[in-house]
Amino acid sequence: MKIFVSGGVKNGKSYYAQHLAKAQQTEALYYIATMKPFDSEDDERVARHSAERDGWGFTTIEQPSDIENILSKSDADGSYLLDSVTALRANEMFSSGGVNENASEKVLKGIMQILNNINNIVIVSDYIYSDAIFFDTLTEKYRKSLAEIDCEIAKNSDVVLEIVATNVIVHKGKEIFKNINEKIS
Question: Number of helices and strands (H, E) in the chain?
Fold first, then answer.
């Protein structure tokens, strides 16, 4: 099952996504970490996420770019949690010290390879493009491309969830979600 989880920043998405990935676990359980920490706040977030999944059986794969490479590092029959598209997109956009103009296409191509080769995956993203504030051109380009990537992931997912202040809203796959949510509760 392919599950897409989106919502505001620091809204409980990652924690909930861990439960979803665990509930659909078949063989191995993988946490695909995409964040490259740049400051103490990032370090704290990584530490918190690591502590939250401690003892759950996740094998962590650090993959801040070239996301399709996870396919050669793991068992395609496992259950995956990719956290997050937001960090992955930023990493690819600024990977060369400048701005990679092809980052959006690269991220989407890599994620589509994963979706086509893995049966059970939960993908997390932040909908940082949902407010009415206008930013500089580069930030707007990033936000727009993230929204486009998220739309493609949602189209190719069985279940689409939005987390709002820890509340779960089901936008796609209500019956499928009902079955997996029973395993979590």
Answer: 6, 7
The amino acid occupying position 37 is P
Per-residue pLDDT at 132 exceeds 90: no
Q: What number of CA atoms fall less than 13 Å from residue 73's CA on the CB side?
A: 16
Phi, psi of 3 (to 5 degrees): -120, 130
pLDDT(47) > 90: no
pTM higher than the cut 0.70: yes
Kindly list the structural domains of the chain, giving each domain's residue range(s) and its CATH number in brackets, ordered by start: 2-184 (3.40.50.300)
pLDDT tens string 14-44: 889 999 999 997 789 999 999 887 788 878 8
Give the long-range contacts of residues 151-155, CB within 8 A, separation 24 or more.
Answer: 152/108, 152/111, 152/112, 153/4, 153/85, 153/111, 153/115, 153/123, 153/125, 154/4, 154/6
